[in-house]
Amino acid sequence: xxxxxxxxxxxxxxxxxxxxxxxxxxxxxxxxxxxxxxxxxxxxxxxxxxxxxxxxxxxxxxxxxxxxxxxxxxxxxxxxxxxxxxxxxxxxxxxxxxxxxxxxxxxxxxxxxxxxxxxxxxxxxxxxxxxxxxxxxxxxxxxxxxxxxxxxxxxxxx
Length: 158
Description:
mainly alpha, 0% strand, elongated
């Protein structure tokens, strides 16, 4: 049974890391579930306080992932069109490769803002804000999921 929990934990970690980049998957909560999966094996034991703190961090980061792009877009004068465009651009950019992950959200936010209002200068500024917000949320999720991954392997292998 322990092997099933370990394999499940590794799959959840991988899904969590992918979920940090794909907007459809909740990265940190999946990574947290991997820690919980390891907790129920004979190799991994996490203190209850640690599990509650990491659960709280996963929830806060997931909520922030929705708030930060909106804040960045609003701060730079953007609309919901820019947020949607950045998200769609991120998904489209995944098919292009690493450069697409960076360029896709910006181009998507710019196009989304152009649909919302035709002023290209305003659209460009809002696209920058949306891009910064989306990138900040993604980096924050990657950091948290990376730390959870480190704790998983540290507890399992050491």
